[in-house]
Design goal:
With 558 residues, this protein is an alpha/beta fold. The protein has 18 helices and 15 strands. Helix 14 links the parallel strand 11 and strand 12. It is found in: Cytoplasm.
Length: 558
Amino acid sequence: MVHSLVRLCAREVVSDHSSSPTWLCWVPRELYGALLEAAFACYRPLAVGELVQRWPERTLCVGGRRKTGQTAPSRLCIQALLLAVVRGLADQRSALQVLDVCGLQGDEGGIGDPMGGWSLTVALCTMVVQAKAGAHRTQRKEGDRDRKRFSALERERDLKRERGQRMGEKELKDDGTCRERTRSKSPVGDEELIKGIRRRMEMERKRGVVVTGSGGSKPETEEKEADWDVLVQVRADIFVNARSWERVRLALSTSGPLKLQCRYLRVEEISVTSIRTLLNLLPRRALLGIDIRYSSLGVAGLAELLPLLSTFPELNSLRLHYCNLDIRRDNFAQEGLLRDLSQGLSNLQELRQLSLTALRLPGQLRVLLSSLPQPLEVLELPYLSLRPADLAYLSCSHHVSSLLQLDLSENCLDETTVPSIRRLLCQASSSLQHLSLSGCGLTDGLLGMLLSSLGGCWALKSLALALNPLSRAGLCDLMQTAARMPCLRLLLYPNPLEDYQPGLPELPSSTQLLEWPLDESIDNNTTSNKLSKVVMDSGRSDLLLTCDLLNFDKDMVD
């Protein structure tokens, strides 16, 4: 009740921006978080900017996992946030030292106009570069003020010296002793002047300015990173493609008041050389995961990157999607590269999540997984053209008893692979929480042979079986088994064969099931209502059934 009242009051406070000057200076630091949350929820970018510019805590976390029904912050609010961080660098009221925006990105074009990962990355890189330029301008202004102050002091000192000399000459007139005293003092004055100029040059050099000629100055073109104090560490998930690569590279190589750190790196359609350049620029202890998509790595390119990935001690996730690792062709010539690949994977000491999508590595699963030093918790192998020997190895590997998530989608399963799948499910029954067997060609008979093993996975929370050629009778058997699984909360089932228009092959592929039109004369809710009745009759009301493949998300149950 107290938290609800705080949120309600915070929304009311940030709703009227004209009143912000009256309450900003009186807000205790404990309420800044609630006010900022309300400003994001109510789409108040001006309030976001004012709060962040004077943020009283050392750390500000704006990203993270959103609650159910909570939308991502709007684009305007994120822009106001980033601008306020730059302004706060010169604001003495700001105590901010760490800005964490990991997970802040939303879906482009979603509700509330969120900022996607690509746009957010460009905005963050622009902020880092602009902060460096602003700090450089401030430094130059301070240098100009110091030079003017030193010049004024030097002129005043020269005037006093000349005035003293004239008064001495007037009093002593042509006395020889006075002339000697004057001659003896003159070199001393010159020496002091030289020392003053040297001291001034040293101080200006420390401020990044080199004095040249008769009082002229120019900024140094090369600045050492040690000359810049990092005021705010910016932690983010970075998305890089061919268009944004140069901007990201510039931001990561820039030394200034803002330092960009990467938690998860996602790259698309860039070369191995560019990926290697990015990895060399990233701080070693910040990167947790890398996701490479649509890049023609090849086995040789991946073997080249793995030694570099091993230099990141906290790297626990590696995802490779459509990276052209097809080794079915010229297999004998690539045996040496496979050994290099296995050796590179063995050096990833903290790897816990491995995703290999559409890499076409038939018969090579043992080579890839046996060298990993730690058991995997997440293993995704869709479209991998797995063979029976691959599944047999996986069912007996040191990874199976530790798996929390397993994706074998679009790998053909038949009677020869059923024993391996049953053994795998038995070994992973106490740990496996998410399982996907979509598009695996499971018929009523094959699924019936697996139901007892599936029912023994008592920790399973989500199960995906879309695009399998099942009948309504097979789906009913599946529902009866699912209703007896105590932790299961989400089940993605396929449309039954009876719901498709006539002409569908007897054993259709997943592509045919995806593209073949449904029979419009059949009510879409008929199957759904029948399956829901089976589940409800079993006493389960907490199991969500869906056939919506596009909107299926296993994280709905976490």
